[in-house]
UniProtKB/TrEMBL annotation:
Organism field: Symbiopectobacterium purcellii
One Pfam family, short name: TIM
GO molecular function, one term: isomerase activity
Family to which this protein belongs: Belongs to the triosephosphate isomerase family.
Main location: cytoplasm
Protein name, entry field: Triosephosphate isomerase
Top class in the EC scheme: isomerase
Protein's cellular compartments: Cytoplasm
Pathway involvement of the protein, from the record: Carbohydrate degradation; glycolysis; D-glyceraldehyde 3-phosphate from glycerone phosphate: step 1/1; Carbohydrate biosynthesis; gluconeogenesis
Origin superkingdom: Bacteria
Catalysis: reaction(s): D-glyceraldehyde 3-phosphate = dihydroxyacetone phosphate
Higher taxonomy: Bacteria, Pseudomonadati, Pseudomonadota, Gammaproteobacteria, Enterobacterales
Length: 264
């Protein structure tokens, strides 16, 4: 976890493709991203972390395509059990075995459409750490309100999500993705000052959390080119969706990240 006052800024850029792409479209996108990353100077910067989260059927080719690159691959979900009679589910054990390094946990759409509760998310966070995966833990308020309200809601979600893992004395890395639900899919992201304040509060909470070996707090919710350079050091990066469908837009965001990583 980057400490306050450090001279080098650690930046994390992640992309979730959700269910937008078909299989071949995903493979083509991964190939283009791979080519961009391989020639971009950001790829050699040690304080940068890059990951992509395709759909389950595309994980194997994505892991293979990015094996020689700075990009890690992860899944958009996992089951809380490591094996068993859970038809249609995918375990963290399998994801780790095939080469995944990240897994998304607790996205607002999983809560809204599939009935995931705080307890499910806590169990899945524990399963991620248990299997050597970095959870991309999504938190965010449903309705737009004050910054203080957003902080209270997000901190409560983070506490709940880490609860099971801490009870089991599990440790690991975590990426907290602050995604205000009202900003997901909207034309504009949340105001930059509000993003910074919420992320700063979440980062302070992570510093105090037991079991967290390394952590970062990034922003998602209509995040795109031009946003990263407007955010303060409390925000460790971006969790990108549709704005990264164009590989050249991702390239532009990498340019922004490179500028931020220069020693101050």
């Amino acid at each position: 976890m980057s400490q306050p006052g450090s001279h080098e800024r650690v930046v994390t850029l992640g992309v979730s493709l959700k269910m937008y792409f078909g299989y071949q479209q995903t493979v083509d996108w991964c190939q283009r991203i791979h080519a961009i990353v391989q020639r971009h100077p950001l790829a050699s910067v040690v304080q940068v972390r890059l990951f992509v989260l395709p759909t389950f059927p595309a994980l194997a080719p994505a892991v293979s395509l990015f094996a020689d690159s700075a990009v890690d691959v992860g899944a958009q979900d996992l089951h809380w059990a490591d094996n068993g009679a859970f038809t249609g589910e995918v375990s963290g054990t399998l994801l780790h075995e095939m080469g995944c390094r990240y897994v998304e946990v607790g996205h607002a759409e999983r809560r809204r459409y599939f009935g995931e509760t705080d307890e499910h998310i806590a169990l899945k966070t524990a399963a991620a750490w248990r299997n050597g995966l970095t959870p991309v833990l999504c938190v965010g308020e449903e309705q737009r309100g004050s910054v203080q309200q957003a902080i209270a809601i997000c901190q409560a979600q983070l506490t709940s999500a880490l609860n099971r893992a801490q009870q089991q004395q599990l440790t690991g890395h975590v990426v907290v993705a602050y995604e205000p639900q009202w900003a997901i899919g909207s034309a504009e992201p949340a105001p930059t000052d509000a993003i910074s304040l919420v992320c700063e509060a979440l980062k302070q909470q992570l510093f105090a959390a037991t079991g967290v070996r390394d952590g970062s707090v990034i922003y998602g919710g209509s995040a795109g080119p031009g946003l990263l350079s407007q955010l303060g050091p409390a925000v460790d990066g971006l969790f990108l969706g549709r704005f990264a469908h164009d590989p050249m837009a991702f390239n532009a965001i990498m340019d922004e990240a490179l500028a931020l990583c220069a020693p101050q």
